Amino acid sequence: xxxxxxxxxxxxVRNLRKVYGExxxxxxxxxxxxxxxxxxxxxxxxxxxxxxxxxxxGLTPPTSGEIDILGFPLPDKGIEVKKRIGLVPDxxxxxxxxxxxxxxxxxxxxxxxxxSQARERARGLLELFELDGTKGKLIGDYSKGxxxxxxxxxxxxxxxxxxxMDEPFEGVDAVGARLMKDILxxxxxxxxxxxxxxxxxEVVERLCDRVAIIHDGKLVVDDTIQNLRSGEETxxxxxxxxxxxxxxxxxxxxL
Length: 255
Fold this sequence. Notes:
Elements: H1 2-6, E1 11-20, E2 23-33, E3 38-42, H2 49-57, E4 64-69, E5 72-74, H3 78-84, E6 85-88, H4 100-110, H5 115-128, H6 144-156, E7 162-166, H7 174-189, E8 193-197, H8 201-207, E9 210-215, E10 218-224, H9 225-228, H10 235-242
Parallel strand pairs: 3-8, 3-9, 6-7, 7-8
Antiparallel strand pairs: 1-2, 1-4, 4-5, 9-10
Helix pairs in contact: 4-5, 4-6, 5-6
């Protein structure tokens, strides 16, 4: 734990902006994620979550502002950052004509892991994610939940220090979600930082140490789960209140 206290923030964002035309998708975001934290990044649809996480991944350049990942500035140290992070994007960009084993091994090779070690790690990850019964099955024939599992498994193969995860539990059944949560919690116990977006607030409330809520591209909440739980409101109550979802609605007579 002392090593984590001496480490730079896993994510440090200062006055981050991303503008499309005249619309600021992310507007002056300041955010710090401590190392070894399970961090939930929340917001309604169109709030700027995916744009933010794409900037953290180095996939989308910011209009202005600064991003440091694990103490390395983006984009200057982009290669160093990519060596140390694991990505589970919302799109699940997998190769449908490979088996799960082949894809995980391929990702390991892309990170410079020697072939025999990459194959050994891929087999272990398939077993860990309970996909070892699908060894000869092509990813194109996987269910959505299985695709999420193989995406997370491939993101683990190089033992990253930080996970950036966009809706990792979407389309995953209860058994698969429990398995994935247990693996992520074990990673946090080992000092890895998890940064995830999710619309499932109950999951975030159960897993995360700290939560930020973004609305219209601006940060509106940034606090620990412990502090947020100190009142009578649930995380869902807080979320609805701060994003303006509690206005009175006129009933429809015929409905």
